[in-house]
C-alpha cells in the first residue's frame, strides 16, 4: 500500500452515551478505492486478478436483455478521462483521443449484432486478507476475488456477482489475458482500475435494526445533551438522522461491519445452504460519500473535495460504478462456511 486514507474521529463516542450500543460495535474495513494501476499482487477494485492460468475463467449463462455498450469503447473513455484528470488544465495533447485510442475505436464494429452465449465475468474486487483483516476466509485461503456479469439480471436490476476464495501461494502461473465480454449493459458496470487504502473502523447497526427501546433513546435529544459532547443543536430535531449519517455505518466501498438499509427495510438473510444468519462481506457503493455523510470524508481528500474544480467529481465516485440510481450492492456471506453460496441485495 503506497497511500493512506484516514477517517476523522466520529463527532461523539456513541457507545459512551448509549452503553447498550457497546456490545454491538463491529469492525469494518473501508477500502478507499482511488484510480491507479494495481497489479495481480495488489488488493484492488477493477484490477487484474491473481487467477491461476489452468483454472477456467467464470462465465454467466443467464438470459440477458442483450445490447448495451462496447467494452472497448468504455475502456477508451475511462483512460481518456483518467488522463485528463491527471493533468492540469491546458496541458497540450491531453484532451481528446490518442492515436492508439482512435485505432481501438475504429476497429469496433458498431453495427455488429450483440454477442450471444455465456458472458465472461469482469473483475470487481480483489482483497488480500493481509490488507483487509476483517475477512474470514475458509481454510487456508487468504484472498477474496469478486467478479460480476456486467448486465442487469432478472429481478435484481444490477450485475450478478461471483465470489472466489483462494490461497495466493497456490497460484504459480497467473492468467495474464482473461477473456472479456464484448459488450456491457452500461459503462457504470465497468469498475475503473483502483488501488486501495484499507482502513479499520468501527461500525454500529443501522437504527432500523435496533430494538424499539434503543431507538427511542436515540431519538431523545436530552440523552445527547446530557452527555455534554458539544453537539450542534441543529440536530436536536433529528437525533436519529445524526446517528445514521455520522455514527453508524460508513459510506463507500467496505468489507465487514454492519449492513446498510434504506432501499428496503431490514430483512433476515439466512444462508441458502445451512440457514445460518449471514454477515456482510462487501459493499459495492455508488458513492464514497454524499451530502449526508460528509463527516466520513478522509482528511487526505478534504482539500480537493472542497475545491470548485469539476474534475474532483472523481473524489466521491472514484470507481465509476453505479448501482441502481445511486445505491449500493451488499454481498453477504455465511460465517459458518464462507464457501456456501453468497447472497446480494441492493440497498
Ligand atoms: Zn449475467
Ligand atoms: Zn451456510
Could you spell the SSE succession in H and E letters?
A: HEEEEEHHEEEEEEEHHHEEHHEE
Q: CATH homologous superfamily name?
A: YwqG-like
Name the strands of the widest sheet in spatial order: 12-1-13-14-15-16
Structural class: alpha+beta
What is the approximate shape?
A: globular
Our count of domains comes out at 1
Q: What is bound: which ligands?
A: zinc ion
Helix content: 10-25%
CATH topology: Hypothetical protein YwqG fold
| Rg of Cα set | 21 Å
| Number of β-strand runs | 16
Characterise the protein shown here:
It comes from Streptomyces venezuelae. This is DUF1963 domain-containing protein. The chain has a single domain, classed as Roll (Hypothetical protein YwqG fold). The protein contains 8 helices and 16 strands. The strands form 4 sheets. Strands 12-1-13-14-15-16 form a 6-stranded antiparallel beta sheet, with no helix packed on it. A 6-stranded antiparallel beta sheet has the order 2-11-3-7-8-9, with no helix packed on it. The chain is globular and about 65 Å long. The chain is an alpha+beta fold and 347 residues long. One zinc ion (ZN) binds next to loops.
Tag the structure with descriptive keywords.
17% helix; 347 residues; Hypothetical protein YwqG fold; binds zinc ion; six-stranded antiparallel β-sheet; alpha+beta; DUF1963 domain-containing protein
Topology (SSEs and partners):
Layout: H1 14-17, E1 26-30, E2 34-35, E3 44-45, E4 59-60, E5 69-70, H2 71-86, H3 99-107, E6 119-120, E7 122-128, E8 143-149, E9 160-166, E10 183-184, E11 194-195, E12 199-203, H4 212-218, H5 221-226, H6 239-248, E13 254-256, E14 279-285, H7 302-305, H8 313-316, E15 328-333, E16 343-346
Antiparallel strand pairs: 1-12, 1-13, 2-11, 3-7, 3-11, 4-6, 5-10, 7-8, 8-9, 13-14, 14-15, 15-16
The protein binds zinc ion (ZN) (2 copies).
One zinc ion (ZN) is lined by residues 271, 273-274, 276, 334, 336-337, 340.
Amino acid at each position: 500500500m503506497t497511500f493512506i486514507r484516514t477517517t476523522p474521529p466520529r463527532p461523539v463516542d456513541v457507545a459512551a452515551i448509549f452503553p447498550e450500543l457497546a456490545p454491538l460495535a463491529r469492525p469494518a474495513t473501508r477500502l478507499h478505492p482511488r484510480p491507479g494501476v494495481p497489479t495481480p499482487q495488489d488488493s484492488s477494485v477493477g484490477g487484474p486478478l491473481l487467477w491461476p492460468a489452468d483454472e477456467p475463467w467464470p462465465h454467466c449463462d443467464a438470459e440477458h436483455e442483450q445490447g448495451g455498450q462496447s467494452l472497448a469503447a468504455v475502456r477508451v473513455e475511462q483512460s481518456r478521462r483518467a488522463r485528463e484528470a491527471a493533468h492540469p488544465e491546458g496541458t497540450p495533447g491531453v484532451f481528446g483521443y490518442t492515436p492508439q485510442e482512435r485505432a481501438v475505436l475504429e476497429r469496433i464494429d458498431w453495427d455488429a449484432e450483440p454477442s450471444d452465449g455465456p458472458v465472461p465475468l469482469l473483475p470487481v474486487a480483489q482483497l488480500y486478507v493481509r490488507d483487509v483483516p476483517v475477512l474470514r476466509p475458509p481454510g487456508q485461503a487468504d484472498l477474496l476475488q469478486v467478479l460480476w456479469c456486467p448486465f442487469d439480471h432478472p429481478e435484481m436490476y444490477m450485475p450478478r456477482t461471483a465470489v472466489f476464495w483462494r490461497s495466493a501461494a497456490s497460484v504459480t502461473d497467473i492468467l495474464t489475458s482473461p477473456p472479456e465480454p464484448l459488450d456491457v449493459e452500461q459503462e457504470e458496470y465497468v469498475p475503473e482500475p483502483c488501488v486501495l487504502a484499507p482502513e479499520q473502523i468501527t461500525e454500529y447497526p443501522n437504527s432500523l435494526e435496533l430494538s424499539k427501546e434503543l431507538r427511542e433513546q436515540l431519538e431523545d435529544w436530552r440523552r445527547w445533551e446530557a452527555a455534554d459532547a458539544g453537539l450542534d443543536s441543529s440536530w436536536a430535531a433529528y437525533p436519529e438522522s445524526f446517528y445514521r449519517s455520522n455514527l453508524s455505518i460508513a459510506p463507500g466501498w467496505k468489507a465487514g461491519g454492519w449492513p446498510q438499509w434504506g432501499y428496503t427495510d431490514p430483512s433476515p438473510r439466512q444462508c441458502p445452504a445451512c440457514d445460518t444468519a449471514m454477515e456482510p462481506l462487501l459493499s459495492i457503493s455508488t458513492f464514497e460519500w454524499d451530502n449526508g455523510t460528509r463527516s466520513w470524508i478522509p482528511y487526505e481528500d478534504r482539500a480537493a473535495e472542497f475545491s470548485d474544480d469539476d474534475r474532483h467529481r472523481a473524489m466521491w465516485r472514484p470507481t465509476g460504478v453505479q448501482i441502481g440510481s445511486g445505491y449500493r450492492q451488499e454481498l453477504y456471506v455465511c460465517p459458518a462456511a464462507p464457501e456456501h453460496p453468497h447472497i446480494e441485495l441492493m440497498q
